[in-house]
Amino acid sequence: MPTSPAVNVFDPAIFAEGIPHDAFRRLRDEAPVAWQEEHAVGPWPAGRGYWAVTRYAEVRRVLASPGDFSSWAGATQIRDPEAEDLPFIRRMILNMDAPEHLRLRRLVTGAFSRRRLEQFREAMTARARQALDVVAPHGRSDLPCDVTDDLPVANLAALLGMPASDRRLLLRWTNRVIGYQDPEHGDVARDSRGRPVNPRSPAALADMFAYADELAAHKRRAPADDVMSALVHARVDGESLTGDELKMFFFLLVIAGTDTTRSALPGGVLALAEHPDAYRRLRADPRLLGTAVEEILRWHPPVLSFRRTATREVELAGTPIRAGEKVVVYHVSAHFDEREFPEPFRFDVAREPNRHLAFGHGPHKCLGAHFARLQMEIFFTEFLRRLPQVEVDGPVQRLTSNFINGINHLPLRWATP
Ligand code: HEM
Question: Three-state SS string across the chain, please?
Answer without folding.
Answer: CCCCCCCCCCCHHHHHCCCCHHHHHHHHHHCCEEEECCCCECCECCCCCEEEECCHHHHHHHHHCCCCEECCCCCCCCCCCCCCCHHHHCCCHHHCCCCHHHHHHHHHHHHHCHHHHHCCHHHHHHHHHHHHHHHHHHCEEEHHHHHHCHHHHHHHHHHHCCCHHHHHHHHHHHHHHHCCCCCCCCCCCECCCCCECCCCCHHHHHHHHHHHHHHHHHHHHCCCCCHHHHHHCCCECCECCCHHHHHHHHHHHHHHCCHHHHHHHHHHHHHHHHCHHHHHHHHHCHHHHHHHHHHHHHHCCCECEEEEEECCCEEECCEEECCCCEEEEEHHHHCCCCCCCCCCCCCCCCCCCCCCCCCCCCCCCCCCHHHHHHHHHHHHHHHHHHCCCCEECCCCEECCCCCECCEEECEEECCCC
